[in-house]
Amino acid sequence: MKENKEISALLHLIDDPDEYVYNTVSEKIISFGKAIIPNLENLWENTTSEDLQEKIELLIHRLHFRDLTNDFTAWAAGDADLLEGALLVARYHYPELQKNTVLQEIEKLKRNIWLELNSYLTPLEQVNVITSIIYNYYKQKGVEFAYNNPDDYLINKALESKKGNAVNNGIIYLVLCELLDVPIRAINIPRQFILAYVDLQHDLLNPVGHASEKIKFYIDPLNGQIYSHKDVESYFKRISVPPTASYFRQLNNKKIIQFLLEELSKCFDNERNHYKMDELLLLANLLEP
Predict the structure, then answer these.
(1) Whose CB has fewer CB within 10 Å in the chain, the N or C terminal residue?
(2) Where are the beta strands (DSSP E) in the chain?
(3) What pLDDT is recorded for position 203?
(4) Beta-carbon neighbour count of residue 201 at 10 Å?
(5) β-strand 163-164 against 141-142: which pairing, if any?
């Protein structure tokens, strides 16, 4: 943004010790939108004050977050494409993210899987092909849920480092299956992020049946391991939770991204970064029905 007297005065006042002045100046700067970011970056480069640099960094973050909030609102109001939602979450931590790199990696994976699939394969054989390409050929690794590394929750970093937790790997798996017309969905099993191969014909003929009846088998997106109905029944016994129908219902894309945001927010549950936790939960709340 071209600097004029008003912008010069505002930038000069960022370092004002009076909190009221600083808050007023901050809101005015935010009102200019992202066009003012180059001015803020220039000021950051030309100051030696760490306090001022921190204030500038926070202003730039707020400008990016305002845009991201608008984009999430538009995403939720539209078709809520899963890959697009995952890219929006990644932009929270990497606001300058170039999504083409992610799209190219997804396309490469999709093409490799498509070459191995055909209409004569059974559901289990289809999943074995997908799993083999992702975890054996492509070498995608799974890491346990932890809250000390936000990158574990971001699709760009999962594809770049070839490792992600269950929800991040799961989103990659789901995106690929959607592109390849393989009926795999995320379901609502407690304390897990688990995928299921859904029998679409059964779903059509028995819409009011128990949700688990529509599932052929389950897939752990951490490593591609397949589980049977018996395995899942044993899990429910182990955690002493009755396997009610709601736990087998399919999660829509908004629910998946909401879960991702909530889990990512836990990485910032400390005094220094608590505002980030609040922001991520605010984005998650935007996706409530």
Answers:
(1) C
(2) 141-142, 163-164, 184-187, 194-198, 215-219, 226-227
(3) 65
(4) 10
(5) parallel
| DSSP 8-state secondary structure symbol assigned to residue 251 | P
242 and 125 in one domain? yes
Residue appearing with tokens 């991204």: 257
Tell me if 221 sits within 8 A of 173, measured CB to CB: yes
Give the domain-ending residue among 29, 60, 77: 77
Contacts of 117 (CB under 8 A, 6+ apart): 126, 129, 180, 182
Same domain, 68 and 106: no
If asked whether residues 185 and 66 sit together in one domain, one would say: no
Using one digit for the tens of pLDDT, what is the confidence trace for 215-238?
A: 999 999 999 999 999 999 999 999
CA distance 134 to 30: 43
Domain that holds residue 111: 82-286
What type of residue is 255?
K
Sheet holding 226-227, edge to edge: 184-187, 194-198, 215-219, 226-227
122 with 9, same domain: the answer is: no
Last residue of a domain, which of 28, 53, 77? 77
**Measured CA distances, 23 to 89, 118, 172 (Å):** 27, 61, 41
